[in-house]
Write a structure and sequence with these properties.
2 copies of one chain form a homodimer.
Chain A (H helix, E strand, L loop, with lengths): L1 H9 L5 H12 L4 E2 H10 L6 H13 L4 E3 L7 E3 L5 E6 L5 E5 L9 H4 L3 E12 L1 H5 L8
Parallel strand pairs in A: 4-6
Antiparallel strand pairs in A: 1-3, 2-3, 4-5
Helix pairs in contact in A: 2-3, 2-4, 3-4
The structure holds a DNA duplex.
Chain lengths: 142, 142
DNA sequence: ACTCAAGTTAGACAAAATCTATATTTAGAT
DNA sequence: ATCTAAATATAGATTTTGTCTAACTTGAGT
């Protein structure tokens, strides 16, 4: 499976717990919180303590197999989508969706960025997702 | 002062505590955490409890005068939202800097965004800020 | 089999945010 | 000016999120 591949190329030991964390994230592209991952991993067998989940999220992140995505709520969220992508946040239902990658025109922001050395960027869009857009346009009063 | 203006147009009561929170954020564009705001506000007079600071950050955010900016650490960070802007995060020193606003070309991402209704967006750049770029290129071992 | 380092663990701890119940302030009516 | 209802503020308890510690387990290399 390609997860083994990922571990090998990252020179990271694929322990049962670590594997389970990565497997969950790879199979659930929903930007799970550490707590959700903890519960999911413990539903199946290789039990992992909270500390282990946090430890592994950190080692996976350091190896580049997972990344912590910025989020508005208090709990950190993680993502195993290794392809570059942008994000869309629905302001009505709170869903966070991946947007497939497109480049900014090379000139964009050249002036605004001044002497900074940009190695990466990401666009975060906000608005109404398809589901919410089709629902009640505003719900009047409340 | 323009803050009164802001309160009036948001139909939000400018209580001493609320005013102090907004004033601090407007005067310190550094993406403060709630804790920093709490301490700053209590250095001067109108003392505010922690709960009040959180309450006011939320009411100000709902009124659009302030916004919670996404951040990597665990503590939420806030920004007085008087001008639209992008962000730059230095991957070496962790600084978060504001980048003056520029629009995305209207066609950008049209396909990738599908049927979503975008009402706003923000670009987050990463890399080395001017200070870090000029410092040691990598620092060898560590 | 023995050793050492990496990994895991439970639970204590700390930090960040929210909640609760009460007190205070304010805007508007009288 | 006084009263009342709604909005706001408060201290402290509580919950949620994340980190730390110290003991235990595992496995690769010898």
């Amino acid at each position: 499976m390609e997860l083994d591949q990922a571990f090998r190329s990252a020179a990271l030991r694929p322990t049962a717990q670590r594997y389970a964390v990565l497997e969950f994230l790879a199979g659930h592209p929903v930007h799970a919180t550490a707590e959700e991952i903890f519960r999911a991993v413990n539903r199946d067998d290789p039990r992992a303590s909270r500390a282990t989940v946090y430890n592994n999220l950190r080692s996976l992140a350091k190896a580049g197999l997972v990344r912590e995505v910025m989020s508005e709520g208090k709990a950190a969220r993680f993502d195993a989508n290794l392809r570059r992508h942008h994000h869309f946040i629905c302001e009505r239902c709170g869903a966070v969706e991946d947007i497939s990658w497109f480049d900014l025109p090379p000139s964009a922001g050249r002036v605004a960025l001044g002497g900074r050395d940009v190695s990466n960027y990401e666009i975060v869009f906000r608005g109404a997702c398809e589901g919410c857009r089709d629902a009640q346009p505003e719900q009047g009063a409340k």
